[in-house]
Amino acid sequence: MPNMSKETLDNDQFHFIDEVASLLIPWGMPPAAARLYGYLLLSKGAVSLDQIAIDLEVSKSSASVAARLLEQCMLIRRHGERGSKRALYGATENYAGLFNERSLLLGALGNLLQSRVDEVATGEAAKRLQDMSSLYLSMQEAMNSTVRKHAKRKHVKKVANDK
Question: What's the count of helices (H) and strands (E) in the chain, helices before strands?
Answer without folding.
Answer: 6, 3
